[in-house]
Amino acid sequence: MQTNFTIQQLSDPAIAHSEAILRKCVHCGFCTATCPTYQTLGDELDSPRGRIYLIKDMLENNRAASEKTVKHIDRCLSCLSCMTTCPSGVHYMHLVDHARVHIEKTCKRPILDRVYRDLLAFILPHPKRFRVALYLAGIAKPFGKLLSVIPALEPMQAMLRLAPEKIPGATKITRPGTKQATGEKRARVAVVSGCAQSVLDPDINSATIQLLTRFGVEVVVPEIETCCGSLVHHMGREKQSHQFAIQNINAWMKEIDGEGLDAIIISASGCGTTIKDYGHMLRNSGDYAKAAATVSNLTRDITEFLYALELPKIQKKHEETIAYHSACSMQHGQKITDIPKTLLRRAGFVVNEIPEGHLCCGSAGIYNILQAKIADKLKARKISNINLVKPDIVATGNIGCITQIASDLDLPVMHTVELLNWAYGGEKPSKIK
Ligand code: SF4
Ligand code: SF4
After folding, report:
1. Band of the pLDDT at 225, cuts 50, 70, 90?
2. Is the per-residue pLDDT at 306 higher than 90?
3. What is the pLDDT of residue 142?
4. Which residues contact ligand 2 via a Cβ below 6 A?
5. Share of the chain above pLDDT 70, in %
6. Residue 429 located in a structural domain
7. Is 303 in the pocket of ligand 1 (CB under 6 A)?
């Protein structure tokens, strides 16, 4: 694609990077075939190619984001399915991230939109605040349907629908500190607790730590780590996301420079995609650029790390059939496709592929709150595809997908690592009756 940026514009590293991305796009439109919003809405401006044109126009002309551009960029799930499909290697993720920063800086959103965004950014990345909010949502949940009469309150209604009936208590094993390896120590890792995950489903972190220590891995849960920053990053709040990233980098570098780390383990693939991108996010941040790259290079999804540990094959077969849902951040963001299924099969489970597996379930961070109608359509499509393979359990690697799918599916939906922990000597997950 031909671009028309001035020399002065190109002296901005963010513009220079986006220009290089834009030049790779050859307008072929292959990406439209796998874009969930284009498939759902049928509007070229809700396709990757359409959005790329809107971003190019906005950046080239250095103009404030128009209402039209904001609308179509907001509707993008950042699922990155387009990156998997694109034959030209267009790095859509970095382009849309840049566009969102530009939108945040140049566009004054309607008041209610700002209130929702501020509220979500204030609550979700902070486990204590999130726990209180979930408690209040639990009280308000029965009245959620009443909100549907006022369209402007749709995000509130979506929040209440997604809030769990019960808030699980924290588990002892996931508290900060060092968890000793059983037997001979094979490695030392930091496990990232995550913000929403640690509140919504502490069993995931618990299973991660139990499984790793059982296979000879010493685990450290650092005291001062925080949200990975992806939630605010996807809102275009660059400064805030960098603050989160820097706090985490400080916590992990302390371990790396101390007793050393073989890996930083993430069990939420959405967070994993962001942390693996810290090196890029902070590339122009002076002293932090090198540390951010170090952290990104050490970051592994839990399934990647378990695969490298070569867990033994289990001969006994489980009765339960698994439908594996590959989160977008897992398959498109981190390009991890077969590993989780291979691990589950080696652990004795029958694993079925879900038709249209490349399509997002509609979760996408806070998308299912701010774009609830589109998210609901994608969820319904995902659930009908899951039902086609008649599973007993749905396994996936991202807390957002678990919450989204479980909110409308009457089957246990759980993290892959919970099933692996069970298969390798841990307790049966409480979600399985
Ligand atoms: S990230 Fe997903 S929703 Fe956004 S343009 Fe790409 S395929 Fe479409
Ligand atoms: S598939 Fe790639 S090159 Fe083709 S239009 Fe989409 S982003 Fe551009």
Report:
1. confident
2. yes
3. 84
4. 25-31, 48-49, 52, 82, 85-86, 88, 90
5. 100
6. no
7. no
Q: Are residues 180 and 274 in the same domain?
A: yes
Instruction: State which residues form the domain around 356.
Output: 312-423
Query: What distance in angstroms lies between residue 2's CA and the mean position of ligand 2's atoms?
Result: 14
**pLDDT confidence of residue 348:** 96
Mean per-residue pLDDT, 388-394:
98
Q: Which of 65-69, 147-151, 191-195 has the highest mean pLDDT?
A: 65-69
Task: State the total domains in the chain.
Answer: 4
Q: Choose which residue among 21, 30, 83, 85 to substitute to test ligand 2 binding: the one with the highest number of ligand atoms within 8 A of its C-beta.
A: 30
Q: Quick one: 72 and 185 in the same domain?
A: no
In single-letter form, the type of residue at position 3 comes to: T
Is the CB–ligand 1 distance for residue 378 below 6 Å?
no
276 and 176 in one domain?
Answer: yes
Answer with the one of 287, 306, 325 that is the final residue of a domain.
306
For 116-131, write each residue's pLDDT tens digit: 999 999 999 999 999 9
Question: What's the 47 CA to ligand 1 centre distance in angstroms?
Answer: 7
Claim to verify: residue 157 and residue 235 sit in the same structural domain:
no
Query: Of ligand 2's atoms, which has the minimum distance to the CA of residue 49?
Result: 5
Regarding whether 300 and 176 lie in a shared domain, the answer is yes
User: For ligand 2, atom 1, which residue shows the shortest CA distance?
Assistant: 86
Q: How far is the CA of 87 from the centre of ligand 2 (A)?
A: 7
Q: Residue 68: its pLDDT value, please?
A: 98
**394: CATH:** 3.40.50.1860
pLDDT value, residue 345? 97
Instruction: State residue 342's pLDDT score.
Output: 98
Q: Model pTM greater than 0.85?
A: yes
Q: Which ligand sits nearest to residue 38's alpha carbon?
A: 1
CA-closest residue to ligand 1 atom 4: 76
Q: Which of 127, 144, 162 is the last residue of a domain?
A: 162
Distance between Cα 52 and ligand 2 center (Å): 9
pLDDT of residue 276: 98
